[in-house]
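README: folding subset

This subset contains proteins for which both the sequence and a predicted structure token string are available. Records are stored as plain text. Below is the entry for MarR family protein (178 residues), shown exactly as it appears on disk.
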Amino acid sequence: MAGTKRLPVDPIAEAKRQWVEHGWESAAAGMTAVTSIIRAQQLLFARIDATLKPFGLSFARYEMLRLLGFTRYGRMPMASAIARLQVHPTSVTNTVDRLVRDELVERHPHPLDGRAAMLEITPAGRMLVERATTALNTEVFEQPGFAGDDATKLVRIIARFRKDSGDFAEPKPQPDPL
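--- output ---
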């Protein structure tokens, strides 16, 4: 990654060596896997943040705009957004507040539930998220930094971990159309 000073030694490999030396060999591989994933997330987020910065977007703001942009009519209930983004409701509320302030999203009363809110992407929000998506695709997603089919293998491994951790269930088969 440009701008990052390379360390003379891999600190995660050194941590593994220390784990083994201190008698924690049975935990060394797991510690290495967990800290490697966390570090990889930091590196990828740095690329994402650098790509979104010119658009004035954080990843949270981008995700909300992209989610709304994917909907058929550009709107959805706030509760649905919270469930799909898998983020604490307070974080979603703060993100939406900033998007509303910047006139990228509008908040409306839910037509059937007076306690709930509907979120709707504005034309400015839609234009911004399309430009930001093009940049993310070009600068991050098309070349994430994995060789060959490593990205596919990694996604399978992590998806299995997520499923086994209760993050999602296998989709139920859809009935045949009538």
